[in-house]
Design a protein that fits this description.
single chain; 59 residues; mainly beta; Rubrerythrin, domain 2; 4-stranded antiparallel β-sheet; 4 strands; 0% helix; binds zinc ion
């Protein structure tokens, strides 16, 4: 059994709020919000994406 739970979360564009990416975070090591500069296909440019809601029961 792996120790430490990783949580899947969405990374959503801060400008249009589209949930463009998913990432895994370890809640024990990461506190607060993650932010990544990523390309948003809706905005058609790189924007800041912030970690948001948890993805539960991911397949
Ligand atoms: Zn966007």
């Amino acid at each position: 059994m792996p120790r430490g739970k990783n949580t899947n979360v969405y990374l959503s564009c801060k400008e249009c709020k589209m949930q463009n990416y998913k990432t895994r975070i370890n809640k024990k090591t990461i506190t607060g919000k993650l932010e990544h500069n990523k390309y948003c296909s809706k905005c058609k440019k790189s924007t800041m994406h912030a970690s948001g809601s948890e993805i539960k029961h991911s397949s």
